[in-house]
Amino acid sequence: MASIGQIVEQTTGGEVLSRARARAALVPDCMVEARRIANTVIAGWHGRRKRGIGENFWQFRPYAEGESLAAIDWRRSARDDHTYVRDREWEAAHTVWLWADLSPSMMYKSTFGAVSKESRALVLMLALAEILARSGERIGCPGIMEPVSARNAAERLATAIMHAPQTAGLPETGMIRGHSDIVLIGDFLDDADRIMERITPLARRGLRGHVVEIADPAEETFPYSGRTEFTDPETGEKLVSGRAETVREDYRRAYLSRRETLGESLRRLGWSFAFHRTDHLASEALVTVHGYLSGLPAGGINGGTRT
Amino acid sequence: MSAFAFANPAILIGLLALPVIWWLLRLTPPRPKSEVFPPLRILASVLKREETPANSPWWLTLLRMALAAAIILAIANPVINPRANSLNGSGPLVLLVDNSWATAPDWDRRVQTAEALIADAEDAGVPVSVTFTADATHDAVPGSAAAAREKLAAAAPKPLVPDRERAAAAVTEAINGTRPGTVVVLSDGVANASDETALDALASLSPAELRVIEGDGARTMALTEATNNADAMSVTATRLATGMPQSMAVNALDPQGRALASGTLDFAASAATATAEISAPFELRNDFARLAVADLATAGSVRLLDDGFRRRRVALISGDSGSDFQPLLQPLYYISRALQPYADLIEPTTADLSVSIPQILEGNPSAIVMADVGRLPADVYEPLQQWISRGGTLIRFAGPRLAAAPADDPLVPVILRQGERALGGAMSWSEPQAMADFPATGPFAGLPRADDITVNRQVLAEPTPDLADRTWASLADGTPLVTTREQEAGRIVLFHTSAEATWSNMPLSGTFVEMLRRLVQMARAGGAASATADTAAALPPFRLLNADGTLTTETGIARPITIAAGATPVASFDHPPGLYGTEDGFSAVNLLAPGTELQPFNASLDGVNVVREGLIGGEAQSLRPLLFALAFLFIVLDSLVVLFMNGAFSRLPRLSRSAAAGLAVLAGLLLVAHPGEGLAQDAQPGDDVIMEHLDTTHLAYVVTGEAEVDQLSEQGLQGLTQFLTYRTTLEPGAPVGVDIATDELAFYPIIYWPISANAPMPSQAAISRIDAYMRNGGTVLFDTQDQYSGLHSSGMTTPNGERLQAILGNIDIPPLEPTPEDHVLARSFYLLNDFPGRYAGSPLWVEARQEAAQTGSELSSSGDGVTPLLITANDLAGAWAVDAQGTPVLPTVPSDAMQREFAYRAGVNIMMYMLTGNYKADQVHVPALLERLGQ
Question: Origin, by domain of life (chain A) (predicted)?
Answer without folding.
Answer: Bacteria
